[in-house]
Model the fold of this input.
Amino acid sequence: MTRFITTTAVLLLASVIPCQAAKVEWRGAAMLVTATTACGTEYMVGQAIPIRYRPSGLGDNGTKSSIAFHQNFYGQAFPVDGRFTTNTLTSVAAGQVGANWGAFTNQAKVNIFGISPASYNETTVTLSIFGLIQNFGDVSGCNVSFRSAVSLKP
Done:
């Protein structure tokens, strides 16, 4: 009986302790709408790439926002302090991971044309993100524009 009371008390206590905030992110796919010739055959118009969007200020995301693209054996992330500013080309400290990891050697820049809906929070189920990235994949002169549809990760 003592074990039952102790177990019940622990479960009740655990249910009233506030849970730690979690990362809030949306995942989905980005479709490349344009790609400059510098991209070669590495990135082509119509190519779909898994994408993750994690904005600052939601859950325990901290003060940085990031958009990350995840190809088969390679990932690249584009973080920015605060939120991405719509219709502003912003230099970012992009990085990559695959067979190797590290910062891009070519300065990446991101321009988010829009996020719809414009106002969203931890319960917004879906987002559409439209943007442009310069020096995508750390390829000098490889500029791509993309459209994406993402869903809130449960």
About this structure: The CA atoms of residues 9 and 72 lie 48 Å apart. Residues 3-19 have pLDDT under 50 and may be disordered. The domain at 21-152 is CATH 2.40.128 (Lipocalin). The radius of gyration is 20 Å.
